[in-house]
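Dear colleague,

Following up on Tuesday's group meeting, I ran the structure prediction for the three-component complex that the binding team flagged. I've pasted the input sequences exactly as they went in, so you can double-check that nothing got truncated or mislabelled along the way. The structure tokens for the whole assembly follow below. Feel free to forward this to whoever is handling the docking comparison.

Inputs:
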Amino acid sequence: MDISTNINAASEQDITPKKANKKAAILGRKLLLLLLLSLLACGLYIFLNINMKYFDYALKIRGKKLAAMVLTAFCIGSASIVFQSVINNTIVTPCLLGMNSLYTLIHTAVVFFLGSSNILVTNTYLSYMIDLVLMGVISTYIYSYLFKKTNHNVLYVLLIGTILSTFFSSMQSSMTRIMDPNEYDTLLTTLVASFSNINTEIIFLSFVLMIVVAFVFRKDLALLDVITLGKNQAINLGVDYDRTIRHLLLAVTLYISIATAMVGPISFLGLIIANVSRQLFSTYRHTWLIAGSAFIGVIVLVFGQLISEQIFHYSVPVSIFITVGGGLYFLYLLLAERKR
Amino acid sequence: MLIHNLKKSYNSKTVVDSVSLEIPKGCVLSMIGPNGAGKSTVLNLISRLIARDAGDITFKGKDISSWKNKELAKHLAILTQSNNVQMKLTIRELVAFGRFPYSGSQLTAEDNQKIDEAIAYMELTDLSDRFIDELSGGQRQRAYIAMVIAQDTEYILLDEPTNNLDIYHSSNMMKIIRRLCDDLGKTVVLVLHEINYAAFYSDYICAFVNGQVAKFGTVSEVMTKETLSEIYNVDFEIQEIEGKPLSIYY
Amino acid sequence: MKKNHLTIGLAICLFLLSIWSLFLGVMDISIAGLLSGNLEELEILLISRLPRLLAILCTGVGMSVAGLIMQQLCMNKFVSPTTGATISSAQLGILLALLFMPSSTIWTRAIFAFVTATLGTWIFVFFIQRIHYKDVVMVPLVGIMFGNVIGGITNYLAYKYEMTQALSSWLVGHFSIVLRGRYEIVFLVVPLVILAFIFANHFNIVGMGKDFSSNLGVNHNLILFFGLTIAAMITASIVVVVGSISYIGLIVPNIVALFKGDRIKGTLLDTALFGAVFVLICDMIGRQIIAPYELPIELIVGVLGSILFVILLLYRLKNGRKSVKPKELFKKRNIKNGYLN
């Protein structure tokens, strides 16, 4: 190494950390903006058109819905970012794995086999637990089997997942057709994503589970930045790639399960918020990406719900807005990808 | 590093068959051979990127599979051909990953120094804030080499480092590889298609045919008319330039 | 010689199953009754059973041939009317017809469905031709997402104009409403499939790539859009009558290709026959499982088809390379690369 490069290196040393700090500051400011926006959304949601007479009651109802939305946004936002990074593709979401239809199938199957008057169905708390446990166990089993069978070829797993989603929904439809029409009626209301009628304990439980999952997989989550370099590079840098991927996908599955069992199936939300976050932050650091995605999720969900409630007076559910908006965004992403 | 009786097959097709090899320390070893001879597979096997079917790979007296991943990453680095990052990543951020086995994501002052040294060594200082996907092929290749340098390992394994580079950039790359060995005392093992680069810049050559070692030795031992003709099935002439054997084939 | 055995076997199988299915149903029909001139039984046969059988045959043949054409043209074994957004586009067309012309006849709806299905398929192929994905599996994924988008728009419109109920009969395919006078559009499949037979070689050549076909003097884009239009029209005429039936176009050609290779001319007839047999079997299962009621065919195909397809996929993944023939190498190379990397 000759002298000139040494000098160069020495002077460079002073500059680069500063630049890194500056970059972090910009990212921090963006995140702060998102935080403020989501707080604004939450504030609007709580206080807009509130009836002062029943203030306490309305506050309680709206607060519960809000909490459910925030939790959902955090679950889906982080799960989508993690999933996209793991499979190294930003135009897919974990809902492509067929977990939404798995949820509807499980939920239908429980009603189908136990009957709508069974305590495990009528008690929201128990029904939530059953959905969650069944979904966690079954999806973990199915997807880890698929990953093993396809030698961790994620694209094949995705393709099989989309086919499985037809399979699950066909099974589910078949069951509903055989089912007693009265039971079907009670079932139907729980199959559409909804933030109303969620029990406080369930929200609390979901929150605790989220924290537990994040804590258990904290080491794998810390490896996300390295994972995005690709399999070979990650192994080169001393990461146990297959194991980490397995853990991360398990965490994704659990997060999606938590969100779905709490509010019902929501597709496309993850696609929007994860990609907006990636565009906004344009960094590889997952701490920023995940936090951004979660806050954007809160903003999208809460504003969507506001529009659905205040403008359309509940006539069009928020999930339809998200599907159409997500769809258009997806087309845009495809076009943008084409230009590159 | 000692390799003994290494075997690997895909769907009953054997790609690496009873390969035994001792990689000498502190020199440049090139692996050559026709397409599908198993060179890259051997490289991937000894760097634990793919699992072997049979055989032993002993690295510093211990089998490679009993090394801790992080520990091994401080002694052995591999750079394969396919490196496509979808993330927005600057050169400096990429090179910083080289320090991951040492400090995780929290870089120390020493890490920063090593990163800057590696960037400067590859003459990328002016570009260090550019994004990887905006670079030319040669620059990107250099950025990855810089990351491997920042990883500060004794052994560096490179899979066709001159692939897709033009003559200027590939001869530059070969000079850098030579310097890695001469200046920094590293052991470099690389897969090459260009025989003359192997002859000119390395100390040892290992020639593969059909998943087996056809010839292993110093450059002058392997670079003979008979050996090369046999390996490649093409007529060769050998001439000496600057005291090094160079081959002519047609 | 052996090739012909398969074709003849399938034909005989189809014939026997067809006869059997005619006598399957809530009302008993017997050969003796028919021969003795029992008018009631004859009427059931002509108004309900025979139309149903013909619709089933057209559906099976049509969907599998449409799938085969699309797979050839896109050079991708995972493309089909379902994974290529054709079905969802046709559904959108039907909804638009219902919205703008509430009194529309089945023919008007069919025209709407033709137009949207063709446009949807074109747009999809336009997209995937410009996005060069490294991995073959990415193409059907894009198609499925694209189909979801169109489905989302359909759902939104249906929700907004309170048409969800009306739409639902086109979302889940079933043969129970097939009666004389209401299903004849499905016969359009016959001339379209004949066209496909005539142009089979052209599709094969176009499937080999733009340069390859120009070299042989075939107008690549013309044949490509012509073939896609045929596939889309076949699909649309089936969706209008029986609703969406997914995965036949995906599974049937793949299973046949496992046995007979990828040359379209040699496999077209077998694909058509096997498709008809498959749909017929699924229909018979659907009619038996909760008799006297019946389960829609779409659900049976959904369950059986998905299982078959996943097994097929895993089988290919495991043994794909062993069964590679020189002819197929061209297409399989992509899959292998994707798998290894």
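Confidence is low (pLDDT under 50) at residues 321-341 of chain C.

Cheers,
M.
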